[in-house]
Fold this sequence. Notes:
By secondary structure, the chain is mainly alpha-helical. The chain has one domain: Up-down Bundle (Ferritin). The chain has 6 helices and no strands. The protein is elongated and about 60 Å long. The termini are far apart.
Amino acid sequence: xxxxxxxxxxxxxxxxxxxxxxxxxxxxxxxxxxxxxxxxxxxxxxxxxxxxxxxxxxxxxxxxxxxxxxxxxxxxxxxxxxxxxxxxxxxxxxxxxxxxxxxxxxxxxxxxxxxxxxxxxxxxxxxxxxxxxxxxxxxxxxxxxxxxxxxxxxxxxxxxxxxxxxxxxxxxxxxxxxxxxxxxx
Length: 185
């Protein structure tokens, strides 16, 4: 008696990218929760209204990101295609913080501005860490354009925040150097 070949199973799309995307979204969700709390504390301790507004904006951005990530996770659980991005209104809101917030009076305040500078530095570190995580996760889904786009969008979100914080930090550093008559080059 001759044995029959086992029936061939239909091959569907590989599960690895979906699993990797879900893992990345869970990490993103943790990052956003940490970001909300950090920016809430930074806004609460900021002494200058403009700085407080920037940290509140970043806190609200993180909350919007958290909801977008949860929505993406729901879509994936329901078997719907990945859909991610930034709304036009969110892009417009970012423009408010394109120019530096620090003024000469803030620099002259000296030591009283140290907490705000430290918060900027910590925020930059958080955003850089998130970018590095998402770059690594994007590599795990290479060859799957929709999955790669999810991570590219997450990277873009974090990069926007890093750019805002970096501009403020750089201007503050330049003002301190100018005040101290220090030029490192």
